[in-house]
């Protein structure tokens, strides 16, 4: 079976897009704080933005908060993405943003949830439990993981910026060490990294540490990250290797299709100017 | 409202127990891989071991893997613990083992899930996103969090044993730094740590770094941790401050009540010998 990042690259080429559409049904954005409202909110975003989407990223928390009905809604959102993909004749990868991370015997159950029950193509994971904690996910052919590396929140600095001694005499921030680890662990083209756009100098360091690795980049727009600076800091030399995740500014747009098209156009222009 | 660790301490005193009964319905331990079988498995453990339990710890993964029905079963398990507690005239704290960790605006949704929808009293969290990622949980009066510090799996070493520079001239393993952070953050008696029993020297270092902090300690029994060494390494001077989590060896026992009673007795004897 084709590795996850090979499948992603195919769709990135076909769609000429690096835009990841985040599906974060915050209750404050819904007419009512219910699973049904979360579902409707997401399906509207899916149908209006699918033709511009390099990937979709549903956020498990905003479904989990509704209990069993929320999990049914999350499954329906994923089914809705598959339906819309089929209608467009494409295969849009689905990244479950769940940030799980547990010992292998427990990770095995989370992997069943993400890949078998929900049918996602990839999942975000915490790196804190180390290499063996990824194995249950990496055992699925064609599936992928994105490891948290440098997150977009202010508290990220508490741990991720700590200076670690790595081997003989090198020292570096912990997030950069994770980037090196991910690059070395990624022998089957199925491990990427999550790096926020709010700190472009960190993006650049990660890109240097992990020259080939795909980066999932939240934080552009409502969290304050600048699109052009982020792309210039993190794109690979081939103009790929980054998914720019946008959630709230699409959801809040009067016309999400137009907003997605404009974002795609901006990204394409910046990529073009860099080649 | 009384802080979480004050409530826990009261029940520890009343039950004279430090035994945390882990509810991990691994599919391989069930007659069928279904949510109903997971529920029955857990309710049997709850009713047979409640009188010996200082706390219960259901593991979200083994419910999540069954989809919406799994989340309904998890809620029923928690309701079952409350019913059994009421029958015994006690208040047994429930720790949701979920190892979540996300930016605050997402953590807020996970906190609703854990504390409002499911009704747990505490949750396990990853520390990787830093102090602000804990705030949505700590905002709930009477609720608590346990931060992953040193986990019981072999891969834990990949990150948790890295040497970090902390401030002027101190350097220490990352897990020990987390222990210092947790101790300093724990101004409202609602932050504990998860430290595996498989590496007692780490337990001892954590206890030294965080003299007052409650430790949730998995890994005794099937994962190879030794009960007596763990207690001698991690107990506070008052003979408290540790929850010894046991899951599979109780679940696999022919008579889980007897097995729980024996574990309690062993723990009490070791505590006694140390006082």
CATH architecture classification of chain A: Alpha-Beta Barrel
Would you list the SSEs of chain A in sequence order as H and E? HEHEHHEHEHEHEEHEHEHEHH
Reading side by side through the largest sheet of chain A, how are the strands ordered?
2-1-10-9-8-5-4-3
- Helix proportion of residues of chain A, in percent? 40-55%
The SS-based structural class of chain A is alpha/beta
The rounded distance between the terminal residues' Cα atoms of chain A is 31 Å
Instruction: Please indicate the count of domains of chain A.
Output: 1
| Shape, principal axes of CA atoms of chain A | globular
Number of helices of chain A: 12
Query: Any idea of the CATH topology of chain A?
Result: TIM Barrel
Largest interface, with Cβ-Cβ < 8 Å? A-B, 60 and 60 residues
Mean pLDDT of chain A: 96
Query: Strand share of the residues of chain A?
Result: 15-25%
CATH class of chain A: Alpha Beta
Largest sheet of chain A: 8 strands, parallel
State the CATH superfamily name of chain A. Aldolase class I
The gyration radius over C-alpha positions of chain A equals 18 Å
> Got a strand count of chain A?
10
Low-pLDDT residue spans of chain A: none
């Amino acid at each position: 079976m084709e590795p996850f990042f090979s499948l992603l690259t195919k769709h990135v080429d076909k769609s000429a897009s690096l835009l990841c559409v985040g599906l974060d049904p915050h209750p404050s954005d819904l007419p009512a704080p219910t699973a049904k409202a979360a579902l409707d909110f997401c399906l509207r975003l899916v149908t209006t933005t699918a033709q511009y989407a390099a990937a979709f990223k549903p956020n498990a928390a905003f479904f989990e908060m509704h209990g069993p009905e929320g999990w049914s809604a999350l499954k329906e959102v994923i089914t809705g993405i598959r339906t819309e993909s089929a209608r467009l004749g494409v295969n849009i990868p689905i990244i479950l943003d769940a940030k799980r991370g547990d010992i292998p015997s427990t990770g095995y159950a989370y992997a069943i949830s993400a890949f078998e029950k929900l049918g996602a193509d990839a999942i975000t994971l915490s790196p804190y439990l180390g290499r063996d904690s990824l194995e249950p996910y990496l055992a699925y052919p064609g599936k992928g993981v994105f490891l948290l590396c440098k997150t977009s929140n202010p508290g990220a600095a508490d741990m991720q910026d700590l200076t670690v001694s790595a081997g003989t005499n090198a020292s570096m921030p912990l997030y950069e060490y994770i980037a090196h680890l991910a690059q070395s662990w990624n022998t089957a083209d199925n491990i990427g990294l999550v790096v926020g756009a709010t700190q472009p100098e960190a993006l650049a360091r990660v890109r240097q540490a992990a020259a080939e690795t795909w980066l999932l980049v939240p934080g552009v727009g409502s969290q304050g990250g600048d699109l052009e600076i982020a792309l210039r800091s993190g794109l690979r030399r081939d103009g790929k290797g980054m998914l720019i995740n946008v959630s709230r500014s699409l959801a809040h747009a009067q016309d999400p299709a137009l907003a997605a098209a404009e974002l795609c156009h901006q990204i394409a222009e910046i990529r073009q100017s860099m080649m």
